[in-house]
Design a protein that fits this description.
Blueprint lengths: L39 E5 L5 E5 L12 H10 L4 H6 L6 E7 L5 H16 L7 E8 L5 H14 L4 H10 L6 E7 L4 E7 L2 H7 L14 E4 L13 H9 L6 E4 L4 H9 L3 E6 L6 E6 L15 H8 L4 E5 L3 H11 L4 E6 L13 E3 L13 H22 L6 E3 L2 E3 L8 H4 L12 H8 L10 E3 L3 E3 L1 H9 L4 E5 L1 E7 L4 E6 L5 E6 L1 E4 L5 H4 L7 E10 L3 H6 L5 E2 L3 E6 L15 E6 L3 E2 L8 H14 L15 E9 L6 E4 L6 E5 L5 H17 L7 H7 L12
Helix pairs in contact: 1-3, 4-5, 6-7, 10-14, 10-18, 11-14, 11-18
């Protein structure tokens, strides 16, 4: 039960211990639009255990009798989940929406049931569960860890799930936080903020018919007498919009306001025995329209699924970061993917030795609709998950956690606005600590932004992990034609032997950067920007005086050590430390030759921003190495993600600019949801801003 909240006291493991500072930059009142974490009080339950109580609403988060048993009884049993989930068709997705994440106990109980059903029923191997939950007053990680530790002891079957949930628990900022648990085919979307606003942002209109809908509702807000906002008419208007024939709902509450609201939005309600000492609770179902021949609770989603979602095989064109993430995302939904590139994976702009994963920050009141922030948070979670898979496959890590220090030389946020963020996501360090972490000795670091969750992505390792997925097959084909009929999409191209090749698929996704326009003229002809990254191998003396962590200024620099296989993409020496500098920015230039002039530009940017580096960074750049790529940028700086106009099978995900490693994972999630008829982790407004057919892209560049 929830919509239950001081500045988040939990910190990331990678956040350095704050040193005493009487003028701490974070000692200020949070912005009014910032998320307010729940205030937790404690009471003794009927069995002598401590249970959490909302400090805002004075109501318990779960039953004094047995919170887990209550979750299973009220929400799982009375939404008939065991039966309904067991009868899902292959690749079918079942969507649950919850009002009030609270302690996450409903999620954990549902997850445990889903895992047990998949163990018992092999046909569920490709079926998917999507759990959408809202929370206005999320519990801080430290408190949540304490609460769930009790449940790990009382219900050992939840212990492993609790560990995974806490590891993925997001920083408490507004917007949608997508958590993917790939081994269980489980997607969890946590929408932090006002529940009515969050539900309004869920897009129910997609390119497919029928549109996505919620299959089961958990109405688990605090009691109407304590928190009436979660039982208001605007909430039930969204419940009605997002439901369809066969949708069920369950709630512990039998209050008149709840019964009337459910009936007014079309549900048939029924009182049943409540849990424990509660006399009654409510169940509800959205009946079939009168014109339907079906009656009673008939879940016909499997038939809808087979009739409308024909997506057993997709072709992805372009094997840069966008194509790799698109292939990975579709494959993890059970789709066979043929990944094509005219040269090789990461042959273009995505193949740098390392990519710095660090967000372009925005004031907190914009954060829920800020693609850079949404993308950064999801991609950092994803890459950490891929690290586990890389370890299993004895590959180099995909993400090397380093933290990053932004000197705020070129930023649209200051220290006052940084203080609105949870410390584990962004903070301003005291001057002495900033010097210690960065290794800089004379630079004025009073104004700084420390990003503890930032790190360096290893593109080669990422590519290796993605291409080991059993549903992804790479082929080197230079595509020159794409066509579609009502039944299929077809590509034609030349293979390595220059033979003509023709491949059919249910869908084609074009992820070919600036060459996307050449493949389909409906894709906007974007601005092309050459960017050259430079690196050199420092001497032992230079190494002791170089920055210890990645630094952002008007460019960025980052020390990295090359791993086995890195030299397949770039001229680096395995086991040796290099300093990476970048990147140049040359408009309307598609050359990819390495230019000493641009080595010098990157050096000049660094020493101008950090003068003490002038005596450390070599002036002779003739032995430096580099890589040049062509970035693709739209006039409004947003990527293009969606179905092409007048098409049913041709899609695009391109124009990531210089932020592909931050944006591509979440954009791939959104596009896969559009293709498969599921709820995306981006709002309706954001999806419109990313549309390849948006108004801003109807006028060509001049």
């Amino acid at each position: 039960m929830s919509n239950a909240a001081p500045k988040n006291s939990s910190t990331s493991a990678s956040l350095p211990n704050r040193q005493p500072d009487t003028q701490s930059p974070n000692s200020h009142s949070p912005h009014p639009s910032a998320i307010h974490p729940a205030k937790i009080d404690w009471q003794m339950d009927d069995t002598g255990n401590q249970v959490p109580v909302s400090g805002e609403f004075g109501d318990v988060y779960f039953s004094h009798a047995d919170g887990l048993a209550e979750s299973r009884y009220v929400f799982l049993a009375h939404n008939q989940l065991a039966e309904r989930l067991a009868h899902l068709a292959p690749m079918q997705c079942f969507s649950i929406a919850e009002l009030g994440l609270g302690t996450g106990l409903n999620l954990l109980a549902t997850w445990q049931l889903w895992r047990a059903l998949r163990d018992m029923h092999p046909h569920l191997a490709t079926a998917k569960l999507h759990f959408i939950t809202t929370e206005k007053f999320p519990i801080p990680l430290t408190d949540l860890t304490q609460i769930l530790a009790l449940w790990a002891q009382r219900a050992p079957e939840l212990a492993e799930l609790i560990e995974q949930f806490l590891a993925a628990y997001p920083p408490l900022i507004a917007g949608c936080h997508r958590l993917r648990f790939f081994d269980d085919n489980l997607t969890v979307d946590i929408w932090l903020g006002d529940a009515a606003d969050s539900l309004t942002k869920l897009a129910s209109g997609t390119y497919l018919t029928p549109a996505p809908a919620v299959d089961a509702w958990y109405l688990d807000g605090f009691a109407p007498s304590c928190n009436s906002t979660l039982w208001a008419q605007n909430i039930f208007a969204q419940i009605q919009r997002l439901s369809r024939s066969g949708t069920t709902a369950a709630t512990y509450s039998c209050a008149g306001i709840v019964k009337r609201a459910l009936q007014s939005c079309g549900f048939e309600i029924k009182k049943v025995k409540g849990f424990g000492r509660k006399r009654e609770m409510l169940t509800a179902i959205m009946p079939a329209p009168v014109s339907d021949e079906t009656s009673g609770h008939t879940d016909n989603r499997a038939a809808d699924h087979q009739a409308t979602i024909d997506n057993g095989h997709s072709i992805v064109i372009g094997a840069g970061i966008s194509g790799l993430m698109m292939a990975w995302t579709l494959a993890n939904r059970g789709v066979q993917v043929t990944l094509l590139d005219k040269t090789a994976p990461l042959a273009g702009a995505s193949g740098n030795p390392r990519a710095l994963l660090a967000p372009k920050m925005t004031p907190i009141h914009h954060v829920d609709e800020h693609l850079h922030t949404i993308g950064y948070l999801y991609s950092s979670r994803l890459y950490r998950t891929l690290n586990d898979k890389a370890t299993q496959q004895q590959l180099a890590p995909v993400l090397e956690p380093t933290g990053a220090l932004d000197l705020l030389i070129k930023a649209n946020i200051g220290t006052e606005q940084i203080a609105d963020y949870p410390d584990e996501m962004a903070t301003t360090l005291p001057h002495a600590q900033a010097q210690s972490i960065s290794g800089l000795t004379t630079q004025d670091l009073t104004e700084n932004l420390y990003l503890p969750q930032s790190g360096l992505v290893n593109p080669h390792a990422l590519k290796d992990v993605v291409l080991t997925h059993p549903l992804i097959r790479f082929q080197q084909i230079d595509v020159y034609d794409i066509s579609e009929t009502a039944q299929t999409a077809t590509i034609r191209g030349n293979d390595q032997a220059n033979n003509t090749v023709s491949l059919d698929a249910d869908n084609v996704v074009i992820c070919a950067a600036f060459e996307s326009h050449k493949l389909d003229r409906r894709i906007f002809d974007c601005r092309k920007i050459r960017g050259q990254l430079s690196w050199f191998t420092p001497t032992a003396a230079e190494l002791t005086n170089l920055p210890k962590v990645p630094l952002k200024y008007s460019g960025y620099c980052a020390p990295f050590t090359a791993h086995a296989g890195d030299n397949e993409l770039n001229d680096v020496v395995e086991g040796t430390t290099h300093l990476l500098l970048g990147a140049s920015f040359v408009r309307n230039d598609t050359g990819t030759d390495i230019r000493d002039k641009e080595h010098q530009i990157s050096r000049d940017k660094l020493v101008t921003a950090i003068p003490e580096m002038a005596a450390v960074i070599p002036t002779d750049t003739t032995l430096w190495r580099g890589r040049a790529g062509i970035r693709t940028q739209t006039p409004d700086y947003h990527p293009m993600v969606g179905l092409l106009v007048d098409s049913k099978r041709l899609w695009t995900m391109s124009a990531m600019g210089a932020k592909g490693y931050a944006l591509a994972p979440i954009c791939a999630e959104a596009l896969a949801d559009m293709m498969l008829g599921s709820f995306a982790p981006l709002s309706k407004a954001m999806q419109a801003r990313l549309s390849p057919n948006r108004t801003r892209l109807q006028t060509p560049l001049t």
